[in-house]
Design goal:
20 helices; MFS transporter; 0% strand; membrane; mainly alpha
């Protein structure tokens, strides 16, 4: 492809989006450029402070738990208070808690403050995603979410490299730099990003159109199609989280170092930065269900391929396969969430979607560690391939549900609550729910079929060897579409 055509393609990828989106995008990029603490928290606790890998894992789980709690609460606040106030409060409180985490010494205090950091940092995500849905026209939303996700991964790649240099001057510098960059994000939002929450309908709620009525959490939970999306998102997110929990342990068991893990996992960030935007041009305006089906198959296949890896090159190849699935999944699924969300319920819907990733960051380390401890790494990778197949089947059923009652083509891009869905949509969503509910038992059966190949002591040793590298973890995954 000539330089002229590349330049034209790049121009088409970024043109036509509102100025407010680009300020929000800039805030996201700066936020991820300063995302040092989440990346190096486990290394800080184990190497600098001398705590065990088990304690570091507990702190990571509490960080994820805080994020899970805030996902739903901040979604409600995003609709009630507004996107901008929720985002500002989240960023200011994140700066305070991150700086505090650098000073606390007591292990209990560290655990508590880490949970608060997870809670405050994750609170921005529903607000950012709802704001993108507000200010970007429906036809451009997949591209906008892809650009935002690209900024997250570009920032992560740079911050991961810079954090090591900054940490050489002391980890406190790392915490304070993270807090400072978060404050800069708040300044940008305060000065350049206006409130985007749609005005409530004038007159009685009964006479207002369905998409303009007040939406509660009950409405979200009764929306079967949307909750099917959330459940399937949880399955895919649980797979992706294994890359930052189980993968470094497996590589350590194969005698590979933390540096080797860094090389393998860097393939993820480099590939996303290189191809996310061109691929998104292909994804735009296409039926999301087939794309999500393919993404689930690739994600499961990539992690299944890990069972056959024994060298850095093979591990990197497996990472490339599931990364392609992630590249397809992220903007497509976020665009679908925006499409299914009613105008005045976007915060709650985005909060529930964010919850799927937060719960995955909490469940994946526990489930992955338990399977590896009892059955070995190969059992986990085999079960991951099965879960990918299950998720793909769920997306096929979801596609049928969506086609049986297409989303309304209104400006909000949503379809309202699922309570009035047609019989075909209900049946399709019910099928998805049944498929997702069966995934745990299917994965367990696949795991049980493998023979025990690693003792608890070997896994523990590998965990200590890979703890620092694994700490970068959920940042790109959990941060999908987030600030």
């Amino acid at each position: 492809m000539s330089v002229v055509r590349l330049r034209q393609a790049a121009k088409e990828s970024v043109s036509g989006l509102p100025r407010e989106f680009w300020w929000l995008w800039t805030s996201t990029l700066i936020n991820r450029l300063g995302g040092f603490v989440a990346t190096f928290l486990a290394m800080y606790l184990t190497v600098d402070r001398g705590y065990s890998a088990m304690f570091a894992g507990l702190v990571g789980a509490l960080h994820g738990l805080g994020g899970a709690v805030s996902a739903v609460v901040s979604g409600v606040l995003t609709d009630r208070l507004g996107r901008r106030p929720t985002l500002l409060v989240s960023q200011l409180s994140t700066a305070i808690t991150v700086a505090t985490l650098g000073f606390v010494q007591d292990p209990v205090a560290i655990a508590v403050v880490a949970s608060l950091v997870g809670m405050t940092s994750n609170a921005s995500r529903p607000a950012v995603q709802a704001m993108i849905a507000d200010i970007v026209p429906p036809g451009d939303r997949v591209r906008a979410f892809a650009l935002n996700y690209w900024a997250i991964n570009l920032g992560f790649a740079v911050s991961a490299a810079a954090a090591g240099l900054i940490a050489s001057h002391g980890y406190l510098t790392l915490f304070l730099a993270d807090a400072g960059m978060t404050l800069l994000c708040a300044v940008i939002v305060f000065g350049k990003v206006p409130e985007s929450r749609p005005e409530p309908a004038v007159g009685s709620l009964e006479s207002a159109p369905a998409e303009e009525r007040e939406v509660g959490l009950g409405t979200v939970l009764r929306d079967r199609r949307f909750m099917a999306v959330v459940a399937l998102s949880f399955l895919v997110a649980t797979l992706i989280q294994q890359a930052y929990v189980a993968l470094p342990i497996a590589m350590g068991s194969d005698g590979l170092s933390s540096t080797d893990f860094g090389v393998a996992i860097a393939t993820n960030g480099v590939l996303i930065v290189a191809v996310q935007i061109p691929v998104t041009r292909f994804l735009e305006h296409r039926d999301p269900a087939p794309l999500l089906t393919v993404s689930a198959l690739l994600t499961g296949a990539g992690f299944g391929l890990t069972a056959f890896a024994g060298s850095v090159g093979m591990y990197a190849l497996a990472v490339m396969v599931w990364t392609i699935g992630e590249i397809i999944n992220s903007p497509t699924q976020m665009g679908l969430v925006a499409r299914l969300s009613p105008t005045h319920g976007r915060g709650r819907y985005q909060g529930m979607y964010t919850l799927s990733w937060s719960l995955a960051s909490l469940v994946a380390p526990l489930a992955g560690g338990a399977v590896m401890d009892r059955f070995g790494a190969d059992a986990l990778w085999g079960a991951s391939a099965v879960v990918g197949l299950v998720a793909a089947g769920g997306y096929v059923a979801l596609g049928r549900a969506l086609r049986s009652r297409p989303a309304a083509g209104r400006s909000g891009g949503g379809v309202g609550a699922g309570a009035d869905a047609g019989a075909g949509a209900d049946a399709g969503a019910a099928t998805v729910t049944a498929v997702v509910a069966a995934s745990a038992s299917v994965a367990g059966a696949a795991s049980a079929s493998a023979s025990a190949s690693a003792s608890a002591g070997e896994v523990g040793a590998a965990s200590r060897g890979g703890a620092g590298a694994a700490s970068g973890a959920g940042v790109p995954a959990v941060g999908a579409g987030s600030s």
